[in-house]
């Protein structure tokens, strides 16, 4: 972190990041504590049709399989056909059915099955499938260049990031969330199977242990640093705030996106071995919250709003100006807020005796250049957590509105 060490930060009084977690963004805190409950049963299906795509404000499920695709066909009609096939399969799988009409065993024995079969006998498990379109899809191959929204302009380069091109970007993305990892993997596998010859997998990411709560009925989860994550996240119950900060409106400049949103993904590698050798006092100072309760410095409860004017016995602010909570707080960025639904990941080891682990950051918003970008720039320049994390992949996607009925399909408003 240029010009500032965490030791100097502690010398300023106390430090830390409130809310979010490694490399994520804080938003306004909730008025009361969420109950440790899950909405509905973990095996229940989530409705597929609606004004907005499921998997955004849906109460965050336990597991993730995220995939980015490169489109290999050059034929616009083939791409539209694929999106229609995918929509039909997604509508079935989210309701606990096979991906195709004849399923895994009901077709012609001499032909490949309509479904790969590994989810036979499993319930829907809250599966949601959410599709997005990357900036590269608007490069002219499919006559979409003049329909690219201004909000889909490429993200700037942030200080300190070390992005790997092979696990960044993508023409299309699909986010599969479920309470059963096999159900999520099955869904992505079958979409990739259906897309053979038209798309190819660019990269995919498995996630576990959601790091955000998207409903007040959910308890706040913890990230791999052991701290509560997503305390101040936007919730599905915040209707007015979702209208202002999450859903795209027609007046935003791309009418086909009305009812949609924009997705930013960041794979954030944590140097957890270094973190694990850091004292509890220092960890809590860096996060600005207690590790147990999750209360901000100077506060008693997890959901108490941080008080940046509050001072300690030494007369210094309990939360320093360069602490994460101050850098990321909406009051520092014109009220910028996000809806986050990230996941922990462990992708084995790096071959040097260290776990390849961290946070797969997922955030939805109305305009990433007015919401994600200014906050991440501040964090990248000054956040104390930069000593313990590294951003290694990035993605930006336009998330179209929901599928209204069985005659509709993913992306119809863009291609019609």
TrEMBL record:
Molecular function via GO: ferrochelatase activity; heme binding; metal ion binding; peroxidase activity
Entry keyword annotation includes Translocase: no
Dyp-type peroxidase C-terminal domain boundaries: 220-403
GO biological processes: iron import into cell
EC code: 1.11.1.-
Record keywords, A-Z: Heme, Iron, Lyase, Metal-binding, Oxidoreductase, Peroxidase, Signal
Domain (Dyp-type peroxidase N-terminal) ranges: 53-208
Protein name, as recorded: Deferrochelatase
Organism of derivation: Acrocarpospora macrocephala
């Amino acid at each position: 972190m240029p010009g500032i060490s965490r030791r100097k930060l502690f010398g300023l009084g106390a430090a830390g990041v409130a809310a979010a977690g490694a490399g994520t963004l804080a938003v306004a805190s909730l008025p009361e504590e969420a109950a440790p409950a899950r909405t509905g049963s973990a095996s229940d299906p989530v409705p597929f049709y609606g004004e907005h795509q499921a998997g955004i404000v849906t109460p965050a499920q336990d597991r993730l399989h995220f995939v980015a695709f490169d489109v290999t066909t050059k034929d616009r009609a083939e791409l539209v056909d694929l999106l229609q096939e995918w929509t039909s399969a997604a509508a079935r799988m989210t309701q606990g059915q096979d991906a195709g009409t004849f399923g895994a065993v009901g077709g012609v024995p001499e032909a490949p099955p309509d479904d790969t079969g590994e989810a036979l006998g499993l319930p829907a498990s809250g599966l949601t499938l959410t599709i997005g379109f990357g900036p590269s899809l608007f490069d002219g191959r499919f006559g979409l260049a003049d329909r690219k929204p201004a909000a889909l302009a490429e993200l700037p380069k942030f200080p300190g990031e070390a992005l790997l091109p092979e696990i960044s970007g993508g023409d299309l993305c699909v986010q599969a969330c479920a309470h059963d990892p096999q159900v999520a993997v099955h869904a992505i596998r079958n979409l990739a199977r259906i897309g053979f010859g038209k798309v190819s997998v660019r990269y995919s990411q498995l996630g576990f242990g959601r790091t955000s709560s998207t409903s007040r009925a959910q308890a706040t989860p913890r990230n791999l640093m052991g701290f509560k994550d997503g305390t101040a996240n936007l919730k599905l119950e915040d209707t007015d705030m979702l209208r202002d900060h999450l859903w795209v409106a027609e007046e935003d400049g791309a009418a086909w996106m009305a009812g949609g949103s924009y997705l930013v993904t960041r794979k954030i590698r944590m140097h957890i071995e270094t973190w694990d050798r850091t004292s509890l006092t220092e960890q809590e100072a860096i996060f600005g919250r207690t590790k147990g309760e999750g209360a901000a410095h100077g506060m008693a409860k997890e959901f108490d709003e941080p008080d940046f004017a509050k001072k300690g016995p030494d007369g210094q602010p309990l939360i320093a100006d360069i602490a994460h909570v101050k850098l990321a707080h909406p009051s520092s960025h014109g009220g910028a807020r996000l809806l986050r639904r990230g996941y922990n990941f462990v992708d084995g080891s790096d071959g040097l005796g260290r776990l390849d682990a961290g946070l797969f950051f997922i955030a939805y918003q109305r305009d990433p250049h007015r919401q994600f970008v200014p906050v991440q720039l501040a964090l990248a320049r000054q956040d104390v957590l930069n000593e313990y994390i590294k951003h290694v992949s990035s993605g930006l996607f336009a998330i179209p509105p929901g599928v209204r009925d069985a005659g509709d399909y993913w992306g119809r408003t863009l291609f019609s």
